[in-house]
Specification:
The chain is built from 27 helices and 17 strands. The chain is α+β, with helices and mostly antiparallel strands. The protein starts with 6 loop residues before the first helix and ends in an 8-residue tail after the last helix.
Length: 634
Amino acid sequence: MVQGFGEDFKELVRSSTSIVDLVSEVVALKPLHGGRDFVGLCPFHDDKNPSFHVYPDRQSYRCWVCDQGGDCFRWVMEIERVPFPEAIESLARRARLEMPKKSRSNGTHENTGRKTDSLVVVEWAVNLMHQSLKTGPAAENARQYVLKRRLSAETVSNFKLGYHPEDWNWFLEKAKGKFTPAQLVSAGLIRERDNGAGYFDNLVGRLVFPIFDERGRPVAFGGRVLPGGNIESDAKYWNSLESAIFQKRRMLFAFNMARDAIRTSKTAIIVEGYMDCIACHQAGVKNAVATLGTAMTEEHVRFLRRFAEKVVLVYDSDAAGQQAAERSISRFLAQDLDLRVLNVPSGKDPADYLETHSSEEFYQLINTAPEAWEYKLQSILRRTDSQSVAGRQQILNQMVEFLAESQGLAGTVREDMILRSVCWRVQVDERTARQQLKDLRDKTDRKSPFRRDADRQPTGIGPRPENAMERAEREMLEIILTCPETIDFIRHHIGADDFENVRHQRLLALCIDLWKEDGDLPELSRLIVAAESDSELLSLINAVVDTAEEKGIFRLMTDQPSGDEQNGASVPNHLERVLGPILERREKRLNLVSKQLLSQTAKPVSELDDDTKDALRRLYNFRQSQMGHPSSMK
């Protein structure tokens, strides 16, 4: 909790703020890489060549030159020169959110509920609405809709589907004596009326789909307006706002139920909606998940590649579905996974298809889904005359543009194989195509001032160069942020005091604390929240993620043969390689301490105290390792 504000309220303000819109009020931003990040002139130093980046998915910013970074709260604090309480009040007013009321007893802000409180409130609401759907007299229309969609009682129970009656104060009435309105707001169940006169419920008159995190805890809701009901809304579906416990840009519907099937099959199937996902599970397609009203993000990819080697995006085969598929793939083409795209035939969505086809037939479609680049090529071929010279030139032009837009693909083996395949399919000279791609990239680089050139760093600005040990520390952080599940292994071998760079120490300590205290893996979204708007930490987090992606750390962690077995699990060679120098430095330090302790006593070994005996033991182990008998990593 920060300065009297509950974490839930702080995250409600964060999720209600577009950091791109906020920064754009001061800095002229231009989108890069399809909107993955935005760039402009840094307001914190005399920037001649735009170096200031804003990351919508990360809800943060960073200057690659002066290394200033932060989130929406830090931005307001730096630009408006105000303390945190005024920054959060400013952003809350901007988002039209009610500030937590003052406590009469001590004048401090009333806590709107910590993370665990929100989990309790959401679980209460899940059970309340589930019971309403099963037995509530007002839910007959919802039950008929469920029957029409051919959902079994077992499916309704497994997914804890629910119904909110057409009563705008139902939650408020049911929560009396249990939860405060502020707790209901933090959990996303109610909102304040525009005129400030009370509250009203979300999800009114909707069939409700609880959203569970990867640990199986209910954290949010999706709701569908029912046909034949009295509730009218422009939005057929409504999703909870982001909060301290819910980040839709990284969460996937039904992942808690699909995890084992994804891990076993090494394949994740991503569909577009709740009903499609539920229909897949009911039909036996257990490795299906759905995004939550958003396109697939890089955080989704980072999350899924911990469990799967192949991801299949499933879209409707109508024009809108095909366009959505084409928009999704260029930004993920260079990712370290096998990305496929499938349009369900006959204009159907997965739910409709599975009504008349078996899961085996659906899996056959999945297994024949083309790779992302192949899908793009097929889409172009369908609308272009490949028999004419002009048509083939047009096909090549579009594919070259597609490859040029894919960040991180340049110079990779994957790009080489894709371009070779495209040239064979279109029957054009490979050397010509490669030159065209090079020319397009060179032209883009010349026109764009947004480069990471090291020589544009002004003297005295930015982080100092790292020595060899600091590079090892940085690589360890890159591993943790890329493969957060490694934190439990790493924390049993090193701690923050094994790092010499103070910034690295703080970030490693934050990662370890998240796991030890909250049981949360140090994933990017959770780290950004836990950084508490600390500019130095947020800048380092963004920098580590950037360099990890440039180096292909995930590939290094997964492609190399495994090293020694530790607690029954294999340790990637890259992790062992990075961990080695850090452990060796610690042993050298212990060696020096041991020598100092031993030099201070002339007693026989039998009379030494426990500390001195331990120092002697460490010295012996260190010398054994120096002689070619390395001690266990444990």
